[in-house]
Design goal:
Blueprint (H helix, E strand, L loop, with lengths): L7 H4 L2 E5 L4 H12 L3 E6 L2 H15 L3 E5 L6 H9 L5 E6 L14 H29 L3 E5 L12 H23 L3 E5 L4 E2 L1 H5 L8 E2 H14 L3 E2 L3 H8 L2 H21 L1
Parallel strand pairs: 1-2, 1-4, 2-3, 4-5, 5-6, 6-9, 7-8
Protein name: SDR family NAD(P)-dependent oxidoreductase
Keywords: Oxidoreductase
GO molecular function: oxidoreductase activity
């Protein structure tokens, strides 16, 4: 299976991957391990982490550490920080996130706060902490996972899109600051990607890119020092549209997904 090898001298010996139990996060862990990096894998569910950790050690002869932490809660990032204090971390892949389409006014306000914490706040806290550690060692990188089209706003996923837009913008701004310290920082802004999330949230699976392509494209961009990368033709087309058209297309998709989820 494909993978992108990152120089261990800069990005190793340990990489931290959040949201590693499935989808893009799991593939990040696999490709990094295939490239010879030890990996800290973190997610809310213990069982998938244990399964993944055993697989990585057996197939790629690397070490792993599993950290169960909920990034939608304020103490989640801090738990991960404490659990990795003794490791020489050269790379942070802050990937944790989720999307549940639905009407803003049809939910409790707490949902929006939790969405921001998961899709933006956790990235902010982890980037600041690990960024400081990487600056002290003089080498390393951060890869954040945002979303394509978030800045245009997405009806029936408004709070989610706003949080992802924050992450996109944070990364673009920090890219130059990190470069001044010899660090790489890239934001992956995926559109439709064929993961279990697509089926779980009744989102269309056609026209999307694969997780393998999304991750390898992101790691190539990080290695090259690029600020942003958007894999997949569908996502790039969506990004090129006027904001009003992007909102209309995305809104119809999310409205249909929300209705399908309610009717299940």
């Amino acid at each position: 299976m494909t993978h992108v090898e990152l120089p261990t001298a800069k990005f190793g010996p340990w990489a931290v991957v959040t949201g590693a139990s499935a989808g893009i996060g799991r593939e990040f862990a696999r490709q990094l391990a295939a490239g010879g990096l030890n990996v800290v894998i973190s997610a809310r569910r213990a069982a998938p982490l244990a399964e993944l950790g055993a697989e990585l050690e057996q197939q790629y002869d690397v070490r792993h550490r599993a950290v169960v932490a909920d990034m939608s809660q304020p103490n989640g990032p801090h738990h991960l920080i404490e659990a990795t204090a003794d490791l020489d971390v050269g790379l942070l892949v802050s990937n944790a996130g989720d999307l549940v389409p639905g009407e803003f006014l049809g939910r409790e306000l707490q949902y929006a706060f939790d969405s921001w914490q998961l899709n933006a706040g956790s990235h902010l806290v982890l980037t600041h902490h690990f960024g400081q550690r990487l600056a002290e060692r003089g080498a390393g990188g951060v890869l954040l996972v945002g979303a394509a089209g978030a800045e245009s706003g997405i009806p029936w996923a408004a709070a989610h899109a706003a949080a992802k837009a924050y992450t996109n913008t944070l990364a673009r701004g920090l890219h130059a600051e990190f470069a001044e310290r010899g660090l790489n920082l890239t934001v992956l802004t995926p559109g439709p990607t064929r993961t279990e999330l697509q089926s779980r949230r009744a989102l269309p699976e056609t026209g999307g890119t694969t997780v393998s392509n999304a991750v390898s494209t992101a790691l190539k961009a990080l290695k090259a020092g690029d600020v942003e990368v958007t894999p997949g033709l569908a996502a790039r087309v969506l990004n090129s549209l006027p904001a009003s058209m992007s909102r209309r297309i995305s809104g119809r998709t999310m409205a249909a997904a929300a209705q399908s989820t309610v009717s299940q």
